[in-house]
Amino acid sequence: MKHRKKILSNRSFAAIWDAASKAESYRELCNMAYDSKYFNPSYLEKKSGLSMKEVYVVLENIYKAYNMRFDEIMKEAGTTNSKLRDSFCIPEKSIEAWKSGRNRCPDYIRLMLLRYYHLLKLGKYIYTEEYDDYLKTIPKVYEESGKEKATDVLNKKEAITINKAADDSLDKGIYDNVRNYEDYSDDDFYEMISSIGSAKHIADDGVKINNKRNSVVNKTDYLDNILKSRKKK
């Protein structure tokens, strides 16, 4: 079942984030929603299609995200001081001060990290406008898993082995006779072709190998054309 995603506009997110910075508790943030313009439940239902329950979920998740400490963000992101320093050119002394709690990390930097490490979860099938735009930039590349590749290689090897076994089992004299097809009358020619038995081999993976008659036709490039020309006559 395909679910319709719901998008929280950047304007609404900014309003909730700003309100979360002023609210003393999650309950207070919910009360602030009714007096707001851009994250009032009625507004969010109209603009983003959020139900009342989903509005409360979004408010709770943004409130929790806003109140995450810098060291908690680092832990959730699985990053280190040196990685942050090299990735964002942040002085290591600042990182250490934020991590230890001596200084408070600016809100915009914490938000940047939350977005960068995809830690901003609003709710099921609910995305920020910014994140939805980001998803649209990702090319859809489909790659076979290692297991599928291994299975494909195995199937090809089995098919080659079985084909070779089928070819080797053919009477060598048959091909000699085909090469001398010009010596045959029409009746003898078709009798020779029809006399080649059908030998189907089925691999464990369900790969079917063509019968001997098709093998003869495939091995002689000119035979197919000869058959067609004789049928026309």
Q: What is the gist of this entry?
A:
With about 230 residues, the protein is mainly α. It has helices at about 10-20, 25-35, 40-50, 50-65, 70-75, 80-90, 90-100, 105-115, 130-135, 145-170, 170-180, 185-195, 210-220, 225-230; strands at about 5-10, 125-130.
Written description of the protein model:
This protein has 233 residues and is mainly α. It folds into two domains: 6-136, no CATH class; 146-232, no CATH class. It has helices at 10-22, 26-35, 41-48, 52-66, 70-77, 81-88, 92-100, 107-116, 129-136, 146-169, 172-179, 186-194, 212-219, 223-232; strands spanning 6-8, 126-128. The protein has a two-stranded parallel ribbon with strand order 1-2. Helix 1 (10-22) packs across helix 2 (26-35).
Report on the biggest sheet.
Answer: 2 strands, parallel
Q: How many domains?
A: 2
Number of helical segments with 4 or more residues: 14
Percent helix, as a range, is: 55-70%
Given helix and strand content, the structural type is mainly alpha
Low-confidence stretches: 170-175, 197-212
> What would you report as the Rg, rounded to the nearest angstrom?
35 Å
Number of strands: 2
Mean pLDDT, as a whole number?
A: 75
- Indicate the overall shape: elongated
| Sheet with the most strands: spatial strand order | 1-2
Could you state the order of secondary-structure elements as H and E?
EHHHHHHHHEHHHHHH
What is the terminal separation in angstroms?
A: 59 Å
